[in-house]
Design brief:
There is one protein chain. The chain has four domains: about 1-140, Cobalamin-binding domain (Rossmann fold, 3-Layer(aba) Sandwich), CATH 3.40.50; about 140-370, pyruvate-formate lyase- activating enzyme, CATH 3.80.30.20; about 375-450, no CATH class; about 455-550, no CATH class. The chain is globular and about 85 Å long. About 40% of the residues lie in helices and about 20% in strands. It contains 21 helices and 21 strands. The relative contact order is 0.05. Strands 2-1-3-4-5-6 form a six-stranded parallel beta sheet, with helices on both faces. Strands 7-10-11-12-13-14 form a six-stranded parallel beta sheet. Strands 19-20-21 form a three-stranded antiparallel beta sheet. By secondary structure, it is α/β, with parallel strands linked by helices. β3, α3 and β4 form a beta-alpha-beta unit. The longest helix has 19 residues, at about 375-395.
Amino acid sequence: MKKIFLLGINARFTHSNLAIRYLRNFISDLPFEIVLEEVTFKCSLFEILANLHEEKPEIIGISVYIWNSEIVKKLLPEIKKILPESQLILGGPEVSYNPEQWLEMFSEIDHIVCGLGEEGFRCLLEQKTTEKIIHKQNPHFSKIKFPYLDSDFPDLKQKYIYFESSRGCPFRCSYCLSSRIDQKLEFRKFEQVKKELSFLIEKEPKIIKFVDRTFNVNAEHYRNIWKFLIELNPEIRFHFEILPNLLKGEDFKILERCPKDLFQFEIGIQSTNPKTLQSIHRNHDWKETKQKIQRLLELKTIHIHIDLIAGLPYEDFSTFRDSFNNIYELKPDYFQLGFLKILSGTEMSERTEEYEIINTNSAPYEVLKNRWLSFDELLEIHKIENLLNLFYNSHKFDRTISNLLEYFESSFDFYLNLVKFSEKQEILFQQKNWFLNAKFLIRFIKKTLSSESDYFLDCLRWDWCKIAKSHFYPEFLRTKETDNAKEIGYKYLKSLSIKGSIQIGKISFTVSDLKKAIFFQPSSDTFRKKYAKKNEYFAFIKTNDSIQIIDFEVS
């Protein structure tokens, strides 16, 4: 029996490869032994080659995307050196729309399966075709076998589980491969989706990410799924990409019943500039979009992730500033600032000359400049993206950043000022180094807003208290007030304990919890007037995975 080796090269360890599982199950009735292998693109070529050599498959299938195309290019010649008789088959979006170029560059490739690859791969294995480039019409998506097996778990339990309830997209965004007219919109029947989701939910993954391109297109379809999940309410988070403009009153009634943290929505705004939106075929009214997103945020139960893209047509530095400010003003849970990628097969790739787009030759084919933005301006936006992730998306500096914004004309101007200051300081930021990033903010504050330094130091102490894992302050934030608050606060709260337990209002905790608490007392009058109008002292109590903040006064 011939052996097929299906290789998935993922961007991160937490990711899983859906494509190779679809292929495995679609051909499961054919007389082949099938081996699945998943690695990340950081895996060494030698390690991948060693695994292939050990299995010695007759057929090797590789799923190619922008995040793994460079390592695949390096891998192809080496595979044939150690397994010259193996048949090498490629598929995936990175090779589907320029297969001739790949075959010209790599003579080692035996076949490329284009587009939705299940039927094309099967026809090749059944020897119904011998073509180098294979285009085959897939059966309706409801006929494509569910990609997962029991044997895939528990290895996948700690990874993202990807799931499709539909394929294709009705919209024609010019930068997206799903906009192609050959990407027909097809749905699985609800009972089929319900059965498949029930299987996955039983495996208790942390997150199930729907990869439907626009999940909330068919009201009957998505409402049934939402209702099913809300009623079931498993301890799993479900991720959906949605278009807020499509939401109706009935949707909000359904979502009002959604338990906290059950759903997260990713919303691709991309730009709020009307001319830009028109040019990329996203003719959505920003005013309506904003209102719908605000209604979602007001629920306070659904994690909202909003995307903005730099480098789109007709978006110059000024209008990008407006788009950035419009999205930031909404205060989403996560604000993703991305950059336009020029993907083969998209309308955008055909209009690069018209838009004077210059992009990188290698994946991810990111825009370097265009008619409206220079390389210098895009570089500035890249630096803003870095600081946005450090100080906004991390949520480790929420009080400090929200108060700093009050002293600048807009959120974009604030981050641009941070960028300018960091360039003078020659700072090398580290995503998880709170101390380094906090010290940078202190230097920025003392240089820019020196008269408010005490106030912002209090803000930083507050932010530290919300993330601290012990009752200690960093030395650069420690004051006589912090020492005083710890001594007085601990003694006072412990005096309220009864048999080792403490109850203050609706908050209960133990003396053991109290020992790990961190205490706060304002040093500045500004902070005191704004946030400590009632009581002088605050205790941050960690219980399990949550934090309780208690304010109190000691007579």
